[in-house]
Amino acid sequence: MENIKFSDLNLHKKVLQAIDAMGFEEPSQIQAEAIPVILSGNDMIGQAQTGTGKTLAFGAPVLSQIESSDKISALVLTPTRELAIQVNDELARIAKFKRTKLLPVYGGQPIDRQIKSLRRGVDVVVGTPGRILDHIKRNTLDLSGVNFLVLDESDEMLNMGFIDDIEEIIKSLNKDRQTLLFSATMPKEIAKLASKYMKNEVKHIKIVKNSLTVEKIKQYYYEVKHKDRFESLCRILDIDEPSSAIIFCKTKRGVDELVESMQARGYNVEGMHGDMGQNQRLNTLRKFKEGTLDFLVATDVAARGIDVDDVSHVINYDLPQDMESYVHRIGRTGRANKEGIAYSLVTPREYIMIKQLEKFTKSKIKRKEIPTLDEIFEAKYNSMLKDVKNTLEQNDYKDFIPVATGLDDDYNLVDVAAALMKMLFDREFNFDYNEDSPVKSTKPVRLFLSVGRIDKVTPVKILNFLEETSDIDVNEVGDIDIFDKFTFIDLPEDLLDAVLSRSSGKRLNGRKVNIEVAKSKNNHSHK
C-alpha cells in the first residue's frame, strides 16, 4: 500500500478536488484499503481505532457514487449527536464540489425543522439510531431507496444499547444496499449483526494499531492563541536551540507559508511536500542529514522515509488529521538510543485532542508555558557565554589579537567585549519580540451560562452570541458542554472580563443569559 495516491483510487474528480483542497496528500492505511473495496460494491467490515481517518474512508467512495435524486441514497448511523455532527461536517467538506445534500439528524434538535429539510429532499442522512427510528415511526423518513448503510463506531452503539434500534432501522432498508460496518473491536453481538445483515462476500479489513515506544521521547504541549502561533514557535526555538528539528504542518500551503516566514527571520530552514519534485526533495533531505540545514518543515507524507538518527526535536506546528500520524511524527525523534523531545502547539479548542492522544499513546503529554522574554534572554546569554569560553579554551582566536590591540588605544577592552557580545546577541534573536502577548495566562476559566438545550442553543449559536456581544475571538473558546437547562464553556482567563461585562444579561434565542464563573467543573453535572 506504499505510495498510493488518492488519484490512484478511481474516486470522482470532484471528490478528489475536495480532498486536495483539504490538504491531504496520500490516504491513510484504512483509506487505502477500504476505498477500493467500497467502490467494488462489496459489503465491508472495517476494524480500526478512532482517529485513523475512517470518515474519509467511507465518505469519499460513497459520495463518489451517489447523484442527487428525490430519495435518500446513503444513511450513516453514529452512536452520539457529537459524532453525527462531526461526521456530517467532514462529509460536507468531501462533498464541497458536488451538489450532494446532507442532513444531520439527532435528538435535542427540533424535529419539525428536520422534517422540513427531509421534505425538501436529502441525499445523505447522518444520524443517531433513536432519532432515525423516531422519524421512521412518524413516516417522515423514507429509507427504501438507500443504497449505502454505514454503521460507524458499532461497538459504541452496542455499549449504549442501540443494537435493537439498529436492527429495526435495517428492516426498513433496501435489501440490495451495500453495508459498511466500522468498529474498533468486534464483540460477538456485532459479529452476529454482521452475519445476519451483510452479504456473504463481505470483506474484513483490520488495521493493526501502531505500537509506540515513548520511553525516550518526552512529550509536551503549548497552549497558544491562533494568531500567536508563529511567534510562539520562534520563542520555543530561541530558548531550546534544537540541533536538528522536523516541524510538521497539516497542508502543503502551510509548509510553504511557514518556511517563508522562518527564512525571513534568519532560520536555516527548507520545506518538503508532495508538490515538490523528487530531486528537490532528495536535495533538501541530503542537506538535513548532513547537518547543513537546521530545520525541516514537512507534511506527513513528505516526511515518510526520513531516516535521520540525530533529530533532537519534533514540533507539531499543526496537529495531524489522525492519531496514527502523531505516532509516526514523534517517532522521528528519540532514535539510536537517544532522548527526543516532541512539542505540539494547540489552541484551547484543540486541547481535547491532547487528552485523546494521551489515551491513544498510553503516555503523558505535559503542559509547558511559552517562554518569556526574560527566559529567552537568559538562555541566549548562557549559550553565548558557553561559546565564548569554548573559543578561549580552544585558543583559536590569535589572528584577531592585532584587531583587538588596535581597539585598545581608544576603548576599554571590557567595553569592546561587551559590544561584540551585544552584536552576537542581536543576531541570535529571530523575532522582534515587542511584548509578552503569547505568554499571558491562557489558564482556562469555566463559565456557567443560564441557557441550555430547552432554549434551543447549539455550540455555533453560543459562539456567535459571544462574538456579537463581547467582540472576543471565538477561536480562543475551549470546550462547550450544553445540558438541558444550562451550559458550561471554557475560555482563557484574559477573556473573562470582556464576557462577564459585555455578554452577561444579553439575550440569546429570546432568553436573557446570566453568566458567572463556575465554582467547580463538577457543578450542575447532572444532565
From TrEMBL:
Entry EC number(s): 3.6.4.13
Xref: InterPro entries: DbpA/CsdA_RNA-bd_dom (IPR005580), DEAD/DEAH_box_helicase_dom (IPR011545), DEAD/DEAH_RhlB (IPR044742), DEAD_box_RNA_helicases (IPR050547), DeaD_dimer (IPR057325), Helicase_ATP-bd (IPR014001), Helicase_C-like (IPR001650), Nucleotide-bd_a/b_plait_sf (IPR012677)
EC main group: hydrolase
Domain DEAD-box RNA helicase Q positions: 4-32
CDD domains: DEADc, RRM_DbpA, SF2_C_DEAD
Keyword check for Zinc: no
Catalytic activity: ATP + H2O = ADP + phosphate + H(+)
Domain Helicase C-terminal: 216-378
Keywords: ATP-binding, Cytoplasm, Helicase, Hydrolase, Nucleotide-binding, Stress response
Top-level taxon in the UniProt lineage: Bacteria
PANTHER family with a match to the protein in the record: DEAD-BOX ATP-DEPENDENT RNA HELICASE 47, MITOCHONDRIAL, DEAD-BOX ATP-DEPENDENT RNA HELICASE CSHA
UniProt record similarity statement: Belongs to the DEAD box helicase family.
Protein name: ATP-dependent RNA helicase CshA
Species, as recorded: Clostridium carboxidivorans P7
